[in-house]
Protein: Cytochrome P460 family protein
Amino acid sequence: MNSKLLLISLLFTLLYSKHEDGASAEKFVFPKWKSMNLLNKELLNSIDHNSFVDIYVNDIAKSAYINKNNKLPEGSIILKPLYPERKRENLARLVIMMKMKDGYDSENENWWYGVYDKTGTNGWFEGKIDSCINCHEHMWSTDYLFSESVINKINTQ
Structure:
């Protein structure tokens, strides 16, 4: 994959994303994302993100994600750094899912989505992002996660 395709992917996210939480939405930062639990040894090909990714999870999410539990607990964070090529260089952005309190977005299992810069401190898009929801909603049986296919890839590494 080249940087041109990555740019197109980012532009798609910019054009088709929508922040519905309004100006008063709580802001989150993830400056210590590299200290989270890295699940994979080798980069995974993410066709939907048009990138290669790592999968990081916080301690709250780790057991439930690895064991493919139906529902991840509130406070679970799944973070993916996106790279344009199959090497951990030229990090383009971070995509993040965080399980919120019941009632945040009940129709979509209370997942918050974020698209951040590589530092994890500048959110370009946050909240109920339509393009993220539209992609993940067909995975309702696994709590809106692609965890089963990802875990199968990780287990073969």
Remarks:
- The beta strands are 37-38, 44-46, 51-53, 56-57, 77-83, 93-99, 111-116, 123-127.
- The radius of gyration is 15 Å.
